[in-house]
Amino acid sequence: MNIFEKVKDQVKITDVVERYGLHLNSSMKALCPFHHEKTPSFSIDPKNGIFTCFGCGETGDVISFVSKIENIEPLEAARKLADMYNIDIEEFRSRPTIKEYLQQCIRDVDKTDYFKTRGLTDETVKKYCLGYDVKKDAVVIPYSSELRYYQRRSVKEKRFYKPTVEDAGSEPLFNQNGLYGNTKSVFIVESPICALSIMQCGSPAVALCGVQGKNKLVKCVTAKKPSATLILCLDNDEAGKTATDSLTKKLDENDVKYVVYNVAKDCKDPNELLVKKDSLLKASIELAKKEVKKKYTVGFGGVTANELVLSNIEPPNWIIPNILPQGLAILCASSKVGKSWMALQMCIAITSGEKFMEYPTNKHGCMYLALEDSYYRLKDRLSKMRPNSLFSKEFYMGIKAQTMDSGLFDQLQEELTEHPTIKLVIIDTLQKIRGQMRKNELAYATDYRELGKLKEFADSHKICILLIHHLRKMADENDVFNMISGSNGIMGVCDSIFIIYKKKRTDEMASLHMTGRDVRQQDIVINFNEKTYNWEIMQSPEELAKERERQRLEEDPLVITLKRLIEPSPHKWEGTASDLVKAIYDVTGSAHCGGYRELGKKITDMDCSLYSLGIQHSSKRSGKERRHIFTKATKKVFHEQFDMFDKDDAL
């Protein structure tokens, strides 16, 4: 039996908590001494000798209680309880406390050169109370100046030792108080040695000290948000990357400010960079702080106009010149209109360097994620689009992907690393990779946050991510971009937006509407060729509208009648509106339902339209009658005037 077991065996936890002023009710509950509260959440389990606070989460045995309330280490708490309850512990008196053990190690630190080989100066060793255990031939690193917890590392072997929970309580983070210092940023690393390396360079750092440290960090920043921005710079290995991704998700959920920055550069960790050259680590630390300033500066962090003009800023990479630049793009259409066919057509064109419809492309690798399809359907579609043909080796496809909350960015990173030629990633559809909406978060905020992450990834890798998405059923012919399913946050984030729109699902023609930050807004009429399974450009909507208007005029009974009347030489007809009503009936068999008065007004309104069709109109009065004169415009005059109309329309 050790001192802890002996004390716990002879002391009742209910007696101790009441001795420290807690008033337990009949349910063995009291107001918690570790945090402010009005309703009791501190509970005692007398049978197992355990206390638990359901408000702040503190829990432990009777020794832990005294240790926490007195702010002393567990061994001291056990000795204190033994004195309070007259328990004989003479056989354990010779055992040193953690503080006494560390003080002896600190005195012996000059007997090892381990810290020197790790790039730490004598000043750092002294400032942070680093020590050496002569018997164990191991260096000792206290977690704080309170000397209540430590980590011991063998000099010759990569073996670690940490005190037991009974001896020292639960393990804290290394330099945990550094989270709440008077500083703008604090570096989060894996090991105490890395934290000491950054602290030696003049910046605060906190070490996780193992996998469980992630949860401890989250617990700390959840209970009390630090004013400083966390700079996550864990080790440059797979474990470090995985831990970073996990941490960022938790920090996002709790709205904690952070940036991810590779302080170690091409080294494994910050300490390795310190050993390589301390000035490189110092420079990297300053760059990391600038990233914090860029992201969270209170001011605008702007530049002067001259600085901007004289700066060498790399232009965006165009996947399809003037149509599709790097960044985040979205292609929307109603269900089953053919947006997936267009996505495939785009990939085929770009990976082969061919034209997409009539637009030239820059040859790049493409990744098409058909998340609503099977490989069989993809094979079938490819075979229809290019019968008996092979495709570019840089055209990659997949039918499964994680969501943005569960590994999508890791998957994208892996593909881009393995296939660096990929400059276009098409995700079909957006809904398949969306994460969970946060509690009390508005739809706009969710859209903006999620698509913002995709845009940030695309920008940082200088690629284009094109999302396939749906239109809502409610039509808006005044502005088709209002028909994008979701909030305005989607269009707000995207750099380029494309919409395929049909008024009726049965229409042969569709309009492709394009706009964006670097893309000139334009509309074109397209048609899906069911023989080639490709979309083709037909004409612009303006041209189509003119053609439809011309066709409507040509089919108007008035126009048909006038053309028939002025066709014979001398290409002239004269008469009243009543005469013309009769002529319309004679020529077309149609009765003008508006009568001669409405017809007279219609002729006046159609003057320009009639002229564009080669029919010139004038009128004169003869007594009480108004007579209309229609003549065939001469070829020269007609074409000159018609050209003028086209120019005016263009203007």
Characterization of the model:
By secondary structure, this protein is α/β, with parallel strands linked by helices. It has five domains: 3-92, Zinc finger, CHC2-typedomain (DNA Primase, Chain A, Alpha-Beta Complex), CATH 3.90.580; 98-168, DNA primase DNAg catalytic core, N-terminal domain (Alpha-Beta Complex); 176-296, Dna Topoisomerase Vi A Subunit, Chain: A, domain 2 (3-Layer(aba) Sandwich); 318-539, 3-Layer(aba) Sandwich (Rossmann fold), CATH 3.40.50.300; 546-650, Arc Repressor Mutant, subunit A (Orthogonal Bundle). Helix content is 39%, strand content 19%. The chain has 25 helices and 26 strands. Strand 6 (138-142) and strand 7 (150-154) form a beta hairpin. Mean pLDDT is 88; it is low at 636-651.
In short:
The protein is an alpha/beta fold and 651 residues long.
Kindly report the name of the CATH homologous superfamily of the largest domain. P-loop containing nucleotide triphosphate hydrolases
Number of individual domains: 5
Number of helices: 25
* CA-CA gap between termini: 98 Å
User: What is the name of the CATH topology of the largest domain?
Assistant: Rossmann fold
| Range of strand content | 15-25%
User: Percent helix among the residues?
Assistant: 25-40%
* Unreliable sequence segments: 636-651
Major sheet: arrangement of strands: 17-16-18-19-15-20-21-22-23
Going by CATH, the architecture of the largest domain would be 3-Layer(aba) Sandwich
Rg from Cα:
39 Å
CATH class of the largest domain: Alpha Beta
Overall shape: it is elongated
**Coarse structural class:** alpha/beta
Number of strands: 26
Task: Report on the biggest sheet.
Answer: 9 strands, mixed
The average pLDDT value, as a whole number, equals 88
